[in-house]
Amino acid sequence: MPEHPSSGARPSRLSGLHLAATSFAAVAGVAIAAWQILTPAPPSAPVQVTVAVAPATTPAAEPAKADAAITATDLSAGAHFSAALNDGVDQRYDLARLFDGKPDTGITLAGDDRELNVLVSFANGQPLAVKGLDYVPPPGAGASATTLDVAVLPAGQMEAAGLPIHSFALPAGEAQSFTLPAPESGKAVWLRIASDTPTAGLAIGDIKLIPAN
Fold first, then answer.
1. E strand or H helix at 190, and its extent?
2. At 168, is the pLDDT very low, low, confident or very high (cuts 50, 70, 90)?
3. Residue scoring higher pLDDT (5 or 112)
4. What's the pLDDT score for residue 135?
5. Which pLDDT score, from 0 to 100, does residue 197 have?
6. How many Cβ atoms are within 10 Å of 163's Cβ, its own excluded?
């Protein structure tokens, strides 16, 4: 009886094919993995970074500190006003009104007062150079001052002995500027305002002390 091929050969053949396919798949997997490793990754798009820089700011300059005792036009700014004599006029009158730049806020003497003696002491007790002064009479037709005496006091006290005293005439109703023979430096100024004819109700206007520089 002829021998027929054994049916067990097919499984052996199929097993070989299966083994070959499995080996191919393994080799292909290794090749793909190697290609992925060896092939450089495509360059990624560059990341743009924008840095916001705040605009430079210039520090605000500090306002200049003005000295209250010295101004370009008036040395009496910031000064202390008191009675030059022991007569209490600084208790009866607001002496600062004579130096506020407003002639209409001047002083009218009352009672038995016939003259006014004022001591202008510069702020901080520092000496200042006085060149002269301006006088503006008060408005109105009443009795007004006609004489102005000035002495610059180096020590800031009423020690006028031996110091020059400058006398100026005040024309009725007229503003006037006066200049000392030479600038004088001191810590205070003594002012005497009066009338040639002592009279009650004497009106005194505005006084401004002019610096030497």
1. strand 188-194
2. very high
3. 112
4. 94
5. 83
6. 14
Q: How would you label 1-10 residue by residue, b for 16+ Cβ within 10 Å and e otherwise? A: eeeeeeeeee
Measure the CA–CA gap between 66 and 63, rounded to whole angstroms.
9
Paired with 185 in beta bridges are 129
Got the DSSP string for 87-137? Answer: T-HHHHS-GGGGGSS-GGG-EE--TT---EEEEEEPGGG--EEEEEEEEEP
Dist. CA 142–CA 159, nearest whole Å: 34
Helices vs. strands in the chain: H and E counts, helices first: 2, 10
Alpha-carbon distance of 193 to 119, in angstroms, equals: 12
With bands split at pLDDT 50, 70 and 90, how would you rate the model's confidence at 122?
very high
Report residue 101 as tokens.
């730049």
pLDDT, position 36: 45
Q: For tokens 């993995």, name the residue.
A: 33
Which pTM does this prediction carry? 0.63
Distance separating alpha carbons of residues 106 and 96, to the nearest angstrom: 9
Q: Which residues contact 57 (CB under 8 A, 6 or more apart)?
A: none
Confidence (pLDDT) at 38: 41
Buried b / exposed e across 119-154, counting CB within 10 Å, b at 16+? bbbbbeeebbbbbbbbbbbbeeeebbbbebbbbbbe
